[in-house]
Every structure is written in structure tokens, then in C-alpha cells.
Amino acid sequence: MDTKNKTDYTALVKSQRDYFNTNITKDVNFRIANLKKFIAVLKANEALMDEAIYKDFKKSSFENYATELSLVYHEINLAIRNLKSWSGKKRVTTNMANLPGASYIIPEPLGVTLTIGAWNYPYQLSLAPVVAALAAGNTAIVKPSELSFNSSHAMAKIINDNFKADYFHVVEGGVEETTALLQESFDKIFYTGSTNVGKIIMKAAAEHLTPVTLELGGKSPSFVFNNANLKITAKRLVWAKFLNGGQTCVAPDYILAEKGVKDKLIAEIKKQIKNIHGDDPQQSEAFVRIINPRHFKRILQLIDTNKVVIGGENDETDLYISPTVMDNVGFEDAVMQEEIFGPVLPVIEFDDLDWAIRKIKERPKPLALYVFASGSGKIKKILHEVSFGGGAINDAVMHLTNSNLPFGGVGSSGMGSYHGKAGFNAFSHFKSILDKSTLIEPPIKYPPYAAWKRKILKKLLE
Ligand code: NAD
Prior knowledge:
The protein is of the alpha/beta class. It folds into two domains: about 5-215 and about 415-430, Aldehyde Dehydrogenase, Chain A, domain 1, CATH 3.40.605.10; about 220-410, Aldehyde Dehydrogenase, Chain A, domain 2 (3-Layer(aba) Sandwich). It is about 40% helix and about 15% strand. The chain has 15 helices and 18 strands. The chain has a seven-stranded mixed beta sheet with strand order 10-13-14-9-8-15-16. The chain starts with 5 loop residues before the first helix and ends with a helix. It binds nicotinamide-adenine-dinucleotide (NAD).
């Protein structure tokens, strides 16, 4: 199907709604068969996806597998294994007032779904939500980001050549196409991207009262305390921060280093950058480029060259910015005014934990937060006092590889969550049913009202 204008989108959505209304997608065996087909089609086209993402921002085949495709495969396999249990009717206890009777919950698909993906992990962020949508029995339209256009073309080719448009279809395009698409009525919109665009999506969804899951961004802090294992801390932080050229929504955005640990930590970070990315990270196959010149310029403007203690090199012709660390940073610096989304790591020193917590809480709620420390007192205090999407103790980013942990933000870092069962839930409605016996019908709720009836009601209902 050619999907370039409003008429096409209206026809596409109608065709998916008609298909959904045949009820075929509700059959669990149909869903499992299509999930099996989905993984087979992706695996058969790995080379095409590798080539496309390398063209987009020099992401290696290894990283494409480790940080994108393996996650999608895992989500598909998990859904296939668990679908019968996830989609089954769940019995719950029946209250006294409804006895004799039974109560149960039936998970049901929402209908026609729209997933809008971001460019930084183009395959994972566009396709993992769709796994959940299809597993839950919906039809799916996916709009990948136009910024990673080679990966977007690859997905369109792979999906649209292998699935019928009335069930699963990729629509390509940017703001104009997405704006037109959003005028249609969907049963669920799943959006990943910036907080500002998240507001536009939610407004458009409100017109149709469409439920949304919003996976947004924000500045994710990383605490490092004096008693942390510095070598492991630096190694994990360097991997997590500079992975994908720092263009990871849950990357440690900045470090809050406890007084006394900062200089040792920076020295260790320097060693680890060299260990992981070599003397010249521009030559490292593991160092991804900035997605486009606009983001390249934006990131450079955040760097205060007087505060750079590691890196700081850049090459516009290659959209390369080296792994960069800034010392003596304060919350008023430019680099602290927006999500960095690039390979720049500011370090802020603190000696009063309450002050550091207050500073985080004065700002929008982070998507992730990390604490590197031993012992439990300070960790417990931070987890208790600070609201954030999710995070890790003594690691960073890795929490999202555990599909038993629902992944999502809170406040301006997002609403709703997915991965594993949480994804299935995000694309389902839970229909509650009371199934009542007709054997008896006590007179208590019917007029004439009487004091003795009220007494019994009190026992039954409170
Ligand atoms: P973006 O919001 O610019 O774009 C994301 C999607 O929205 C794209 O498909 C784009 O075409 C569409 N879009 C852009 N402008 C639009 C408009 N005016 N109307 C309708 N649609 C529009 O985000 P981005 O730059 O691709 O991603 C970066 C941001 O996303 C960062 O803040 C990052 O933290 C966040 N992010 C969050 C997650 C997460 O899982 N929470 C994952 C990746 C990225």
C-alpha cells in the first residue's frame, strides 16, 4: 500500500480496523504463528539491517546485534513462550454480595495500534513495542524515525514485503507524515522520543481519547560514592555513557561524585576510555557517530572547553565527537540545561547528599538513576527520596535488558512501561466479568428499604 497522504492513511487504518474486526488476530495460535514469522523474517534480513544502520551512524554489526536485534528477538521468544498464560482468562475471588457467582478477567487486544519510534536505537525502539502489540492480538502500524532513514527503509522493506498492510505495516516519514497519521483514530499510541514531541502526541491522542504509552527522555544522574569499587564503576560508566556515541535515553547523563572520590574517578575513567576505545576512538569500531549535523552542533555548544579534562576533539566531516569528560561542572552550566544525548560526561562534586537530592528533585523526573556505592544506607535513601523511571545499583543501562523489569519513565520522562509482560499489558485491555448464578435472588438490594436490610448490606459491602 502506498502511504503518502491523508487518504492513504485513512484507508490504511480502515483496512486494519476491518481486519481486526474479523477477530482473527485474537486467536492465540494466529499470534504465535505471526511472531514466529516475524523473528524468521528479521533473522533472514540481518545483513540488510546491519548495512543500513552502519550507513546511518557507523554502528557496528556487533552492536546492532547486542543492543538492538537481540532485544527484539528476546521479546519475541518470551512472548511466544508465555502467550498462552498471558492471554488466558484469570479467575479472581468473588465478593459476598455476588455469591453464588464467579469473577474473572479477560485480557483483550485494544485494536489498531500506532508505534512511533526514535532514531537512536532504530530497530529496537520501533520493533520491540510492536512485538507486544502483535502478541496482545492487535494490528500494528509503525512509523520509524526519519533521522535514521536507512534503518527506516530497511524496516519498511522487510515488514511490508512480508506482512499484509491490513495486519502489520511500516509507514515512513517525518513530522508532516506523522502529523497526518495522528489525525486518524487509533486504539493505542506508543511513542518513543523527546518530551516536547511527547506532548504533541498526547494532545493528538486526546482528540480521540486514545490511550498512550510515552517513552521519553531526561537527564539521568549517576551517583558515585567514596566507597564504590572505582575500577568497576569507571568501566561500567564509560561503557554505558559512550555506547552509541552517548545517544542512549538511559545513558548516565552526568555524574554526582561524592567529595574525595572525584579526581580518582576521573583518572580511572580516562584509563577505561583508553581500554575500551583505544588511543584514538575515531578509529574504534565500537564508537558510533552523531546522527546528523544538527545534533553535532547542538552537542558541541554544550561543551565548555575550559572544563574539558578528557577528550574534546571533534571532526565535523565524520560527525565525530570524542568521549569527553568535563570537570568542576555546576548545575547552572549549559551542559546541565538539557539532556546531553551525546558523548559528553559532566562531573559535579557534592559533599551533602541532601543538597544533591534536592538539586535532582528541582528538575524534571529522570528516566534513569544510577548509584555506585557499597553498603546500603545511602542507596536506600536515594531510592526512597528520588522519583525516577528505573535504574541500577553499581551498573548503568543494563537494567533494561531484564524483561522482568517494566521499562518506562515517570513524570516528564514518560508514562506507562513495556518489555516482557509489561508490554503485553500496555497493549491490552483487561475486561472484568462477573458471572452470576440464577439459583437465588435475595431481596436485600430491592425496595422497600428497611433497617434490617441496611444491617445486612453493612455486613456484605463494607
Ligand atoms: P523526537 O521526539 O524528535 O522524534 C521521535 C519520533 O517523533 C520520530 O519518529 C519523529 O518522526 C516523530 N516526530 C518528531 N517531531 C514530531 C512532531 N512535531 N509531530 C509528530 N511526530 C514528530 O525524538 P528523537 O530526537 O528521535 O529522540 C531523542 C529523545 O528521545 C531523547 O530525549 C531521548 O531520551 C528520548 N528517547 C527515549 C527513549 C525511551 O525509551 N524512553 C528511547 C530513545 C530515545
